[in-house]
Amino acid sequence: MRWHISILLYGAAQALAERFDERLELTALPDGKVLGHWTFTTTLQNAEPGLNHAQHYTLFPLGLGQILNAHGASELHLALNAGQWDYKLWGSPPEPSVASGAELWTWIRARNTTQADERWVGFRNALAGVFCASLGSLDNQRTTTPALSFRPSVPLPAGKHELRHATLPAEHVCTENLTPFIKLLPCKASAGLATLLNPHALFSAPFHGLSVHYTQGVLRLAVQAVFTPPRQDWSLHTLLDRSVPSACTVASSSTLSIVAAGAQLDPEPSTDVNGALQYDLASASFPLEVTIRHPVDTVFSHRRLTPAVSLRRTMTGSAQYAGGLLVQLENARNDTVRVSYLETLPWFVTLYLHTIDIRVDEDPRQRLDLLERLSYVPPRAPAPTTLEPILRLPPMSRVTMRFQLERAFLLYTQHPPDAQRGWDLPPAVVTILPPSSPPITSGPGGQVVFALQGPPERVYAKTLLADLATPDFSMPYNVIIMSSTLVALLFGNVFNLMTRAFVIVNAQ
Amino acid sequence: MRIPSALWALSLALAVAAHDGPAASAARDFFAPYASNHTNNWAVLVSSSRYWFNYRHMANALGMRVTLYRTVKRLGIPDSNIILMLADDVACNARNGYPGAVYANAGRGLDLYGDNIEVDYRGYEVTVEAFIRLLTGRVPAGTPRSKRLLTDDRSNVFLYMTGHGGNDFLKFQDNEEISAYDLADAVETMWQKKRYNELFFMVDSCQASSLYTKFYSPNILATASSQVGENSWARERDQDIGVFVIDHYTHLVLEFLEQTNKTSHTTMNDLFSQYDPVRIKSNASVRSDLFPRPLDRTRLTDFFGGVAQAEVVDAALGMGSGGSTLSAPSSSEDASWTERPPVGRTVPEEDGEEGEVVQVKGFTMSSAIAGLVALAGLAGSTLWHP
User: CA-nearest residue of chain B to A476?
Assistant: First the structure.
C-alpha cells in the first residue's frame, strides 16, 4: 500500500506541497487532572498568500479551503468551549481561546466595510453549516471590531483587511461539532491520534474545547480538554476509553507526548525531551496502549506557567438601573505589565464611561494615570459596546476598575424563549502586551501596529449572566381575552336592547 | 397502419422476457400501477421542545434518525438527506449524567447520539419561522447547504414532528406555536413549488391528529399518535437519567421499523395495523384521503429507505486534462483521482428567496403578534432572533 501513498504524495507535490502533522500532549496537572491537547496541523508549503491557487488538495480539507477562498478570510480562529478554565491551578492553556461558548474572529480581505460585512455574513453561515454550530447567530448584535486586541498572528497578505470578532457565550459543544471537525482530518477517526477523540470521554471532561485556526497556509485543528482520571494510575484506555489502532500513514510526524513527573510509562517511550516522554507513532507497535503508574506517592512538583495577569470580573448591584461592573486585574510579577482589556457588552447593558474608577490595592486615590490609551465604541442598538483600555499594571499589585452600568428593559418580543435565564455577557479578554519599548506605532491606513514576537498571551474572564427584568409573557393573551369578552358582552347587550322587542307573553 | 419492425421486435423481446423468472417479475413490479415514482428520499425530523424534562422528545427524534440512518445494511437515508432539528441540547446538557449519550429505554441500552451525528438546526435556531422557511425553501441568503431542504418534485419526504401540542397547534421552544393551518399552507407551498412527490407526515404529541386535519394538498399520508381531546403518553423513565426517555407511540413505530430493512416489502398497512390503543394508551390514527395509492401497496421503504442508484462500471474512469471519460485501466489509476479540473473561485450558492412567509388562510397568534409589532413601528433589528 505504501507505493500507492507515495504516488498520491507525488501527484500532490505537482500541485502543492502539503504536510500533515499530529501531536497529542497529555500533562498531569497539580490537582490530579490530566490535560489533553491534540494538535492536527496541515501545512500548505509554497502556497501563495490568500489561497489564490487552484485548490488541488490532498490533505488540506477542500470544503474549508473553498469557504476561506470564497469569503476572503485570510485568518480564521474559531473556538468552541465548554467549562471553566482554572488559570491558577492549570496555568496558561495551550490554546489561549478558552472562553465558554463559541468565539469566532477573522481577518477578512475587503475593499470597504460594506463588502467586509457581506463576506462576514456569508462566512459565518458557511462555518455554521460545516461545524453544526449556531454561528449564523453572530450577527450585528454580537459582532465587534476591536481596535487593539486580536491582531493578526502572522503578517496578512496584501490588501485591505478588516477584523470581525464575535462570541456566543451560551453555545453548547457536543458530538455534532466534533463529527465535522474530525471529517476535516486526512485520516478521520480511523487511524492516528484522532481515534482517541471519544466524544463520551471528551464531553464529560470538566473543561473541553475544539478550535480551528487558519493562518497563511497553515490549518491547525486543536482539541484541549482537562480530564479527571478515575485513579492516580491511568492509561489511555481508562482515561479515554480508546487506544490507537494504527498510525495515520499520511502524517509526516505523529507524536504522543506525556508530561508526568515521577511516572513510569509502559511501554517505554522512544524519546525524552525536556521531561516530556514521547512516543513516535511511526515506530510504535499497535494497538498502542499507554499506561502510567506512579510507584511512589510523590509530591507533585510539575507546575505549568501561569499568565502574568489574572482577571476577575463581576457584575455588582441588583437593581435594573443601578448596576456596576467590577474588574480586578492582578499582576503577580515584579515588573510593570501592560495589558489591553477588551470588554464587549450587548446593547441592552449600557456602560457609562464617565463613571470609570481605577484604584490600586487599598489606595483610595483615583489612578487614571494607569490608563494609557482608550478605545471606545459606544453601543448603538443593535451594535454592542466595545471598550478597550490599555492599562499599565504596577508590579505585585491588584488594580480594580469599576464602571456603572444600566440594564435596559426590553420589549417582550426581544426576549429569548427561556427569558428567565438571563443574558450571557461575552467574556472580557485581557491581552498581555510587551513592555513599553518598542512603542505603539501607526501603520499605513491608521491601523495600530504592535511590534510583537509571536501572538501575545490572552486571558479570558468568566461569562457573566445579566438578569434583565422579564415581563409577564401571558399578558398579551390575557388582554386579548379580557377585552374580547368585554366587547362581546357590551356589544351583545347593546345589540339586544336595540333590536329586540320585549313583549309581555301570556303565561297560559 | 404499418407498425415499425423495431416496435415488433421490442414487443417480442418483452414478451419473451416476460416469461423469465425473478428478473422479469422485478421489472413488472417496477412498472406496477402502485409503485412509487420517487427518485430520492428526504427526512425532516423536528423536536420542538426545550428544557431537560423534555428529554423524551429529543430521544424520539434521534430514535427516528438512527432508524433512518444507521448503517447501509438498514434503511439507509444518508445524513445529508436528513434535516435534524433539536430545540435543546440534551446529550451535552449539564444535567446529563451520561454526557454525549442519549438513550431511549430504561437501562440505557442503545446510545442514539453515537459518534457520528450532525444536527442541522440546534437550540434557538429551531423556530416556527425557520421551520416554515425550511419547508418552503425561502431560506435567508447565505444559508448553508446542510440547512436547506433540497427536494425536488420526485422526492419522497418524511416529516416527523414531536413535542408538546394541543388542538390545532404544536408548541415550539415553549414560547410559540405552529398552527395546523400554517403547516397546511407551508405544505401547499411545497406542492406549488414542486418540492415533494409524496409526503409522509408523522406527529407524536398530545392531540396530534388535529395537526393533520387541515392539509389540503395532494399526495400526503398522515398519521398521528392521538386524537383531539386525548394525550399521548410517555412510556418509561430511566432512574439514573431521571426523566422520561421515550414516548409510547414513537417506541411502537421504532420497534416495528426494527424489523424492516432496505429490501423489505412491508407496507404502510402493516405499520398502521400495529396501532394498539391499549398498548400505547391513546388512539393513533391515519389520514389517507389525500394519498393516491392504496396503503396495502405502499411500502415503508418508499419513505424510510434511501433510494440508491448504483451503476457498476467495468472500466476505470480517468479524469485527465484531455477530458477523456473512459480509458483503459492502468497501473496508475490510483493517481488519477488526485487530478481534478481546476477550481477557481467557487460559484456562489443560489440565494434562497427571502420573501414573506405566505399565509393563505388562517389567523394565528404569531401573525397577531407580528401585526402588533409592526403597528408599534419598531425596527426589526433589535427583536430577539436566534
Answer: B369
